[in-house]
Write a structure and sequence with these properties.
The complex is a heterodimer of chains A (about 270) and B (about 450).
Chain A: E1 9-10, E2 17-28, E3 31-42, E4 46-50, H1 57-64, E5 74-82, E6 85-86, H2 94-100, E7 101-104, H3 115-126, H4 132-145, H5 149-152, H6 165-177, E8 183-187, H7 195-208, E9 213-217, H8 221-227, E10 230-235, E11 238-244, H9 245-250, H10 255-261
Chain B: H1 3-28, H2 42-78, H3 82-85, H4 89-104, H5 114-152, H6 159-199, H7 202-207, E1 211-212, E2 227-228, H8 231-262, H9 265-280, H10 283-304, H11 314-339, H12 342-350, H13 355-384, H14 387-392, H15 410-418, H16 427-461
Antiparallel strand pairs in B: 1-2
Helix pairs in contact in B: 1-2, 1-5, 2-5, 2-6, 4-5, 6-16, 8-11, 8-13, 9-11, 10-11, 11-13, 12-13, 13-16, 15-16
Classes of the chains: A alpha/beta (about 270), B mainly alpha (about 450).
Chain lengths: ~270, ~450
């Protein structure tokens, strides 16, 4: 198999990027999971990452908040900067990094705590609230912005797991924005949800874009087209093509991208 | 044929039946090529034949073996000479004992009365006849069933369904054995304990503070009144269990956290098996350890600090019992912590939680019901533990909260009461059953609470 990295087609840079990734390689033991990826991530916009299963899009997403650190045998090489600072720098505290780069997972994973405590958890560990009143305010605001407040305001003390799947995922989003991050990473956030819950999350992503940079990994090309402004297509560890979502879906430059979005494989 | 040979022969017969049934099913459809026309696999037809051949015959044999003695004794009793029949019930029991001993060959027939010898001879004669009849009946039953079933094998006979129903029934019987045994144990303990409470009032037993079960065996012996206040025993059990849990819970829990969350896989692969070895050490060995090492050690340490420590102290027994329970707590807690889904840890890490924050507030929180359940199970183990306390805690029924003194526990007293010569209608012996009943109720309640806690939190968090 040809292991040499391919050159990415399209515009990898944006003006004033929040994340800037250069020559990123990821290895799981001997497996070369991400090959020389170069991409910028812009402020106040949604970047969708698409590609067939196992293409490395989730792996790349997990590089951005160094979640790959928790996987034994994973090794990340290359240069990733957040606001110009190298995230792998020795000065960079991974806890601080993750406070600035929030993440929402594929399966809703509320903590075994009440709805209130789920949202309050991040602000508590980072000391964001000076007193109970401020904490209440943060929880209230986060739940409102996640569009969950009206549904849960009367039962904040019930366990987070008592909510439905879609509500749980919005709770996880509320939990993430309670820490007030700059970037939100979403790893297939709707794959475990029904279409109605998915639509609510997509609306929410659209609103959140006004304040945050968002990277979303998705298997649904319709979702990528609906929520994102830029799209990156990954294939077998290569970043094949990246560009404006409109362009990618109407006029893909790379053959692989075209085959994928027209449904020839994947 | 003796019963054991008979049973083995029946098994052999069933094996033959299996082969016959299997061969027959193949013949019916014209050889191996026709298997697809059979409703079930040939083996099912074989099993069906074997089960019909073996089970009813075995059942007859087992039922007869269970009732044989009573039937034979009843038959013999009916034809005993009148002077034997007019014996009192106690004497008659003795007569039957002699009879059984002669039959079993423990006593030569020349050493007993002619009446007994005659009865024994009659017993043996009847037994011989019965065995012959039983052998004939069992074989007839087996062979007839085998032939009938073999004759009824057709391609569309649903052999698999029947065989599976029988197997299901056998599995059910196996599960019933455990339940029935438990019920039997409870009944026997309750029955004896009731007799005890008939002699000693329950309040005195449960709330009395003096324990000295030295009942005289004969009424004219001195010191024939015993005191059966079990409070010192309960207090001792509680004290030792508390010390044990103080040792076992923190150490077990923390080692589980280390092993599950922090330890590199190399350390884990060495330490975990070692901890489990600790669980396999016989409790007697822990007892040695308590008596020969920990006890003297505590004594010396106590003397150097100006404290007087008894040679057999609650502290020594509790410490060693705690060590014994560590692997129990740690392996249960380790299982619970490892069972917490990685996604929860990821969620906490992604919010910027440190490792210890994640463990304290998310992982342990999620594992809590399981850990609490495990600790409660460990407590009921500590309460029921016998060998260590027998060796290391002593026999003195002191009512004290001082861990440096000797205390005694419920289990130790049960052992002491039941060791040696005993009489099953003296309160001294019966007290053991009352203690056993209390022990059983306490551990039962603990287990029920443990299950309840686990279930309640599971409902909420999973």
């Amino acid at each position: 198999m040809n292991d040499a990295p391919k050159t990415t087609i399209g515009t990898i840079t944006v003006a004033e990027p929040v994340f800037s990734c250069r020559n990123v390689d990821v290895y799981y033991g001997d497996k070369h999971a991400i090959k020389n990826v170069n991409i910028d991530i812009g402020r106040k916009q949604v970047l969708a990452m698409i590609g067939p299963s196992g293409c490395g899009k989730s792996t790349f997403l997990r590089c951005l908040n160094r979640m790959n650190d928790t996987i034994v045998g994973a090794r990340v090489e290359g240069n990733i900067t957040l606001d110009g600072q190298d995230i792998h720098d020795k000065q960079q505290d991974v806890v601080q990094l993750r406070a600035r780069v929030g993440m929402v997972f594929q399966k809703p994973n509320p903590f075994p705590k009440s709805i209130y405590e789920n949202v309050a958890y991040g602000p508590r560990i980072h000391g964001l609230a000076a007193n109970r009143g401020e904490l209440d305010e943060i929880v209230n605001q986060s739940l409102r912005r996640a569009g969950l407040w009206e549904e849960v305001k009367d039962r904040l003390n019930q366990p987070g797991t008592s909510l439905s799947g879609g509500q749980q995922q919005r709770l996880c989003i509320a939990r993430t924005i309670a820490v007030n991050p700059e970037v939100i990473l979403m790893d297939e956030p709707c794959s475990a949800l029904d279409p109605i819950a998915t639509a609510r999350i997509e609306d929410l992503i659209d609103e959140l874009r006004e304040s945050y940079a968002i990277c979303i990994v998705t298997h649904s090309m319709q979702q990528a087209a609906r929520v994102s402004q830029r799209t990156a297509y990954f294939h077998l560890g290569d970043l094949v093509e990246v560009g404006d979502t409109n362009l990618i879906f109407t006029n893909p430059q790379a053959k692989l991208t075209e085959d994928y979005i027209t449904g020839r494989f994947g | 044929m003796t019963p054991s040979i008979l049973i083995i022969s029946l098994l052999l017969l069933s094996f033959i039946a299996y082969q016959l049934g299997k061969a027959r099913s193949l013949t019916v459809v014209g050889g191996a090529r026709g298997i697809r026309n059979l409703h079930s696999l040939p083996g099912h037809y074989g099993l069906l034949t074997a089960l019909w051949c073996g089970l009813p015959a075995l059942l007859v044999v087992l039922v007869w073996l269970a009732v044989q003695d009573q039937v034979l004794i009843a038959l013999i009793s009916a034809q005993l000479p009148p002077e034997v029949r007019s014996l009192g019930s106690d004497q008659f029991v003795l007569f039957l004992n002699d009879l059984r001993n002669v039959v079993a060959g423990n006593i030569p027939a020349s050493q007993v009365s002619p009446a007994t010898a005659a009865a024994a001879a009659e017993y043996l004669r009847l037994q011989g006849v019965a065995r012959l009849a039983l052998t004939a009946l069992a074989f007839a039953l087996g062979i007839v069933a085998m032939l009938v079933v073999r004759g009824r094998i057709r391609a569309d006979l649903r052999a698999r369904n029947s065989v599976e129903r029988v197997l299901e029934g056998l599995l059910f019987l196996c599960s019933l054995v455990a339940v029935l045994t438990t019920i039997g144990i409870i009944l026997s303990v309750v029955f004896e304990a009731t007799r005890f409470f008939g002699i000693v009032p329950a309040q005195e037993f449960l709330f009395g503070t003096k324990w000295s079960p030295q009942m005289a065996i004969r009424a004219d012996q001195v010191g024939s009144s015993g005191a059966f206040g079990a409070v010192p025993l309960f207090a001792g059990t509680l004290l030792i269990s508390a010390i044990a849990m103080l040792v076992a819970v923190p150490i077990g829990l923390f080692s589980a956290i280390y092993l599950a969350e922090y330890a590199p896989s190399k350390v884990r692969s060495v330490v975990k098996p070692l901890l489990e070895v600790l669980a396999g050490v016989p409790t007697v060995v822990y007892g040695f350890f308590a008596v020969t090492t920990v006890g003297p050690l505590l004594r010396t340490a106590g003397e150097s600090m100006g404290l007087s420590v008894a040679g057999e102290s609650a502290l020594a027994a509790g410490l060693v019992m705690g060590i014994m329970i560590i692997p129990f707590v740690s392996s249960l807690a380790d299982d619970m912590i490892t069972a917490v889904p990685q996604s929860l840890r990821d969620g906490a890490y992604a919010l910027g939680a440190t490792r210890s924050e994640t463990i304290k507030q998310v992982v342990l929180r999620a594992a809590l019901p399981g850990i609490v359940g495990g600790v409660l199970l460990a407590i009921s183990r500590a309460i029921g533990e016998t060998m260590i306390v027998v060796m290391a805690a002593g026999l003195a029924a002191n009512l004290t909260a001082n861990p440096l003194e000797a205390v005694t526990t419920v289990t130790v007293q049960i052992v002491t009461l039941l060791v040696g010569d005993q009489e099953f209608d003296s309160p001294k012996t019966l007290a053991a059953f009352a203690l056993g009943l209390v022990l059983f109720i306490v551990t039962l309640v603990l287990n029920v609470i443990a299950l309840y806690v686990v279930r309640k939190y599971r409902e909420q968090y999973e």
